[in-house]
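Onboarding guide, step 5: your first structure request.
Type a short instruction followed by the sequence, for example:

Predict the 3D structure of this protein.
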Amino acid sequence: MAADQNNRKTTYLASAGLLLVAFIWGVAFVVVKSALDYIPPIWMLALRFTLATVLMLLIFRNRIVTAVRGGRTIIKHGFYLGIFLYVAYATQTIGCMYTTAGKNAFITATYVVLVPFFHWFRTRKRPNHLCFIAAFIAIIAIGLISLNGDLTMNIGDFLTLICGIVYALQIEYLDKYTENEDPIVLSVFMIGFAAVLSWVSAPLMDGPMSGIVFNHEMLMGILYLGVLSTMVCFMLQSLCQKYLRSSTAAIIMCMESVFGALASAVFLGERMTGRAIFGCFLMLAAVILAQVDFEELFGERKKFADI
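The system replies with structure tokens like these:
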């Protein structure tokens, strides 16, 4: 009885932890949108990733040294993941300049629908039929959220969609590499290489650092993004997902888009059309449908059909 109670308590705490991650990431869309008034997008990434990397190096320095002594492959894999992370966040952050924070949040959520398909291409293991239905619903949802009356998509929504695709790749290969490597150390190298790529590309894409306005709002935004949204959330996600079924974790994490839309309405006064709101509900349904495995929910092992 005591063991069951401890297991339930652990599950509740893990669920609460992931919900906190979803909330922090949801509010981050508003923080990014506000901070872009004072700092160009790639310089924002450079400062955000650097702050997170320095803090994680200080906290996990012994763990990092031990992992590297065991083999340098983790550094190479961290570099690959860093490229994915950099491209995903760059397109998302630049996209946020040209679209609303709420739309940015919901379109980014397409990564949850895409991950099972990238897993299929990598492992040759076919996802269940619900994933195909979810993908179809997601396409309709993106159209309702993003397409204008002349059936064109603005550059911000398009870049955000690219972010969702690349982020799905990052998640899939992070899952692959963490099968045999320390996820915390891998995350440190991933974020570190994303920081390096940001510093290298920022002068080319955003111009000199003189374009940054160092004020209270900008600095608080970088602290939020670097400490909470990057370092804390990556570590908390890695810890909490160990104690939850993947379907349960995915459903909780998809609340990120909901929190993002709510935060944009409350703090930025953003409003969506009725069509876009309906599209957001469809996207949320697609995200949940893509990740729910009814066999797993009932305690059975998740199955894939080999093609």
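Each response can be followed by summary notes, for example: DSSP finds 14 helices and two strands in the chain.
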